[in-house]
Amino acid sequence: MKKIKLDIVGLSYSQTQSGAYALVLGEVSGRRRLPIIIGGFEAQAIAIEIEKMSPSRPLTHDLFKSLTLHFNVVIEEVIIYNLVDGIFFAKLICNDGKKTAEIDARTSDAIALAVRYQCPIYTYEFILASAGIMIEGSDFAFLENIEPSDDSEQVTIDNPVKSGYLNFSETELREMLDKALAEENYEKAARIRDELSKR
Fold it and tell me: DSSP code of 13?
């Protein structure tokens, strides 16, 4: 089957499932989008890497990357290969220089690793045909319609989140950023950092 390349379009809080997030993947050569509901931990792991934040200690996916690189194993690509009863199935295509192996993984973990290895993400036509959504307008409108957050904050790659931190001074924001990092609240830290970078 022909593989279709996907990019991460956005990540937003899910109103449909408490504590969950909607990860939106987009077809590179088309207008279809693939929304996938993932857990908060995995959403945080993806957001941290996209935002290029440095946690004080390695997170699980960072540890996995360090371990595999230590033993000269790289992830070459991630493939979302099946969809059964609303659950996506993914696999990691790994190589140690001598042989290639396919490792089954939860889709959220596979994406969190893909952003760390900067490897491509693929799926197949039948998955996009059954679970994909065709976009006519902008990606931002799509994210607002699919999964708006309670306070209208959304993370997208091209459109930084509207932070709601406008009334704070730079000193206050830096203190809040330090506190958020100490508490390992990386999503909040990313929003504060975005506000600081605008000033």
Answer: E
